[in-house]
Amino acid sequence: MTTTDATWWRQAAVYQVYPRSFADADGDGIGDIAGITSRVPYLARLGIDAVWLSPFYPSALADGGYDVADYRDVDPRLGTLEDFDAMVAALHAQDIRVVVDIVPNHTSDQHEWFQEALAAGPGSPARDRYIFREGTGPGGAEAPTDWESAFGGPAWDRAADGQWYLHNFAVEQPDLNWANPEVRDDFVRTLRFWSDRGVDGFRIDVAHMLTKDMSEPLPSRAELDAMPRDGAHPLIDRDDVHEVYAEWRQVFNSYDPPRTAVAEAWVDRARIPLYARAESLGQAFNFDLLEADFAADQFRRIVTENLELAASSGSSTTWVLSNHDVVRHATRYGLPHPERDADGRPALKHGNEWLLSGGRQPRLDRAGGLRRARAATLFVLALPGSAYLYQGEELGLHEVAELDDADRQDPTFFRSPGQDLGRDGCRVPLPWTRTGGSFGFGADGAHLPQPAWFGQCSVEAEEEHHDSTLTLYRRALALRRELQSVEQLTWIDAGRADVLWFERPNGWTVVANFGTEPFPLDRADIVLASTDVPIGVVPGESTVWLASR
Ligand code: BGC
Q1: How far is the CA of 523 from the centre of ligand 1 (A)?
Q2: How far apart are CA 523 and CA 537, in angstroms?
């Protein structure tokens, strides 16, 4: 593999593997590292440049692995470090880079540091690695503040000896104290540990929340909400977090080629370049398309703004239509009125407001959602910047909404409680074959039940069809490699508000019809289309790629 190309990430197609739900080699119902290795030929054939693995570390799975009990090991249910090395070797042999997830805002409550902190008691150095405080009210029985966790419910929990600890996510995810040098040193060790094992880059979880100003008196929730997010907010997107990343950058740059990093930072758009600068993490996620409707004006604005933003930091932007935290895009685009959560992200509501189809969910337009998803994907894969794909989207999978409450695992479901269906519906194990106990995922069972309709979306079923979504992704990714060029595009006026038309400098042209009326286009040089294209028009809700004249 090319080890000297330091810019591979700029326009890479990165495929997100959610390890527990990808492929299960040992048949225990949970996907594993050996399963990923066994599917390297599939990944190579797909034509991606890198995989990003969601956490595979030892974890009690209170938050799907984002509660890490040991940052420098593999969960025994998923394999061993030797399995990990074999997987990296197999991926590298196919020229596929490996990106791993680093979760630095919080550990698992099972992490030896947290167990030590609980045992050591108030005022101890072990407690100082986390954020412990005395409570308020008589006997300190009330939490230090009224802050809320991102998953709902209070952001503090009480230790047996009466002190309270901060957890911005689940109770089982205590926040680390980034003012403690031991915490900083330990993460540098972790970054080196995986870099030395050949990992090419890192995805940094909740990158905007590590450093905190916990000086007394602590503000109330209302006060926090009213504070500007200008770099001095006590909890979110503080300027001093970049001192951490400046140190990490030195670590990354001590490798050849330098290790890459991408920030998961939900911050004001204007502050994204701070994370994407070469001196910091080098790239930051742009999640705008996760919140957008399938609409030309929104797509055009998002593309223009994000290309400018990335250019201002010298980075490249990232396009994301689906990931492990959101409703799959085929489903989002098939819902009549996507419900939105407090942050504006599409959410599925519980109770009588079921919006998904499949018997229980009559309001999902399955075919329409998939048609629009394919058009959006083809549009996005032609853009300058890197494209992050989420496992299963290449099969056109819909969200699995018909999970029984008893099968759900996501803490957002339990902490809402039950009001937010949570993220399990996009995390159901992949179908590889038409039939079989777990559609080829493993032996018989899968840790989240797969619906009957998974068989027809399986890799096996889709490989048989020239117009399947899998075939579309394979062709698009192969062409994308050939056509990739300077990171620029030029908009062409299509003469219609619902049609976007752009050219890349090498003559690669893209026409996306977001409307329902056919768009006349008299070109014989169409190389790829998201749907069947009759001569002379781009049908509604379709994208076509044209070769240079
Ligand atoms: C991850 C989530 C996770 C959260 C807490 C995120 O942003 O993508 O899956 O629940 O961080 O670690």
Answers
A1: 45
A2: 9
